[in-house]
Amino acid sequence: MAFSLISRSLLRTSRELLERNMAVGAVSMLNGFVDIEMHPSHPTRTISTSTPALIRQTPQYLQTPVPPNSTVNPASHVYKKKSKHPKRQQDEESGSDTDSDDEFERKRQNMHKKYSQKGDSEFWRRKMRTLHRILDINRDGVISFDDFKLLHKRFTDLGHLNEELSAEFLHVMEETWKEQFGEITPYNLINADQFLTDLHHRLNDKKMFKTMGKFLPYLFKAVDYDHSGHLDLDQYKLFFRCLGLSNEDAAISFAVIDKNGDGQLSLKEFVHLGRQFFITEDESKISKMFWGPLIDH
């Protein structure tokens, strides 16, 4: 009987030693892969893993995979993912809102830009009202083809267009009227509002846009009486007299558009400035003075 009791005791002791050695061996195998930090302030362990690993602290741990950067509660063996730092999370949420607002504003501006048209500025409308007043040669408040014929006659008589150039000029004026205002009749009268509407349409029509200012070379040739290919101040004054404008306005305009100050204006410069007057909405461009000082409203 005593021998039996001693044998059972030895077997129990050997079994306990075997289990203890197995547990120690399992933990040793995981050394270098798992970093366990004990927090004295609360009964949890923070377990950080750089590679997938299993923890053998009790036999149950061997059966439960540990997610990276997780918190282990030994009592329940429940793993919870660490929450972000409150300040960092707040900054990220705030930044996300800001990015969303910025993206919305960019889309809104792009949409406005996509559907906006040329000639929508008050500055452009002011220039066109100025031109309407100039082309109203008989000063009756509207533009008719009679005004275009008077303009043609002035540049032919006061200027130096020969018979061939004069006929070409009249043909261009007729084409311009038809393209822009329709039929040539005594009843087709264009007031300032209609003039702005028609030019706005032409400015935004790709085909018509290319023909804007095609009559300008004839105006240049009419006042280039010495056929030098350049206009000086006296010739520019002649240009203004054909338009019914004063020499004083001509001098002011010429001083502005003669950008390099050489006292001359080439055909290329003349046509460029004349076309730019129609198409630009940049108030800093010197072309705004091509037809003289702008009206106030």
TrEMBL record:
Protein name, as recorded: EF-hand domain-containing protein
Domain EF-hand: 123-158, 245-280
GO MF annotation, one: calcium ion binding
Residue numbers spanned by region Disordered: 59-119
Pfam (any one): EF-hand_7
UniProt superkingdom: Eukaryota
PANTHER family: TROPONIN
Organism: Stomoxys calcitrans (Stable fly)
InterPro entries referenced in this protein's UniProt entry, alphabetically: CML21-like, EF-hand-dom_pair, EF_Hand_1_Ca_BS, EF_hand_dom
Biased amino acid composition, Acidic residues: 92-103
Keywords: Calcium
Gene field: 106090563
Amino acid composition bias (Polar residues), ranges on this chain: 59-74
Positions with biased composition (Basic residues): 78-87
